[in-house]
Amino acid sequence: MSNPTIIAHRGASKSAPENTMAAFEKCYRQGVQGIETDVQLTKDNIPVLLHDETLRRTTDANGYLNEYTYRELQRVDAGSWFSDKFAGERIVSLESFLKWAGNKPLYLNLELKNNKLDYKGLEGIVYELLKHHQLLERTIISSFNAASITRMKPFNRHVEVAYLTSKKKRNLISYTKKIGANAIHIKYRLLNNQIVKRCRQEKMSLRVYTVNRQKRMDKCFTYGCDSIITDIPVRGMAQYKRFKMKQNRPTALR
User: Fold this and answer.
1) Which CATH number does the domain housing residue 188 bear?
2) Marked catalytic residue, from 9, 132, 158, 185
3) How buried is residue 113: exposed, middle or buried, by Cβ count under 10 Å (0-12/13-18/19+)?
4) CA distances from 246 to 45, 196, 219, 253 (A)
5) Can 9 be counted among the known catalytic residues?
6) Which of 24, 57, 111, 235 could form a disulfide with 11 if both were Cys (CB 3.0 to 4.6 A apart)?
């Protein structure tokens, strides 16, 4: 079994404001292997990193993100809601993030936040930016939106495309392949022996979100999941070390 990749959910999102450079820098300094972040489009079609469709929860502004131009968003504070020490953090453009990540040994998971607002052209814009920055080989593009996954079929020979789901579905793996994904990201409660077995049969990567508890991490490691996506990446890395040490101990010492 190869080592699972520990992916930081929205960066180090328990210790810095999610999806900001502060959160990305922090998890990188902690030694994380991968970063997951969320991509949406501004009013002027600039891809930026934000989870919610509206600005209210994680900034000092209101309204929908796509009602603002990128220039207008640069006046928005995306850090003070988390802590005063992060005042002045800005909403990050995908371009800036890719430039920052380009020379770092990181896997990237770009989640297209298009399941509620289906941004026109988002898939192609993101793909072309990844191609420009030569990051296709170490990036996963994921989405809950099955139509978006299908629109990415022309790309899936060049970049990993993952279907995101939190819902039980019969023949989930077959459905995932049918819509054009070559990987699957599931909510933790869906993890079981059957889905692991089917993914292995189909040579499909399986990643699990959002895994913060140590016992749940161990279950993912035991099943041989390709990655866990966690809000606390430093815990995930430490827990895998403990798990591996325990597995390598002689039976008599366990």
Assistant:
1) 3.20.20.190
2) 9
3) buried
4) 49, 22, 14, 9
5) yes
6) 24
The band of 254, judged by pLDDT with boundaries at 50, 70 and 90, is: low
Closest of 95, 97, 113, 4 to residue 46, by C-alpha = 95
Quote the CA–CA distance of 123 and 92 in Å, as a whole number.
18
pLDDT of 253 above 60: no
> Which string of b and e fits 222-233 if b means at least 16 CB within 10 Å?
ebebbbbbbbbb
133 noted as active-site residue:
no
Q: Whose structure tokens read 């990201």? A: 185
Give the per-residue pLDDT at 234.
Answer: 96
Catalytic residue among 51, 132, 133, 185: 51
Amino acid 67: pLDDT: 98
Give me the helices (H) in 64-202, please: 70-73, 94-101, 122-132, 146-151, 172-179, 193-201
- Strand 160-165 vs strand 139-143: parallel, antiparallel, or unpaired? parallel
Supply the range of the domain harboring residue 199: 5-253
* Count of the separate structural domains present in the chain: 1
At 218, the amino acid letter reads: D
Between helices 214-223 and 233-248, what is the axis angle to 10°? Answer: 60
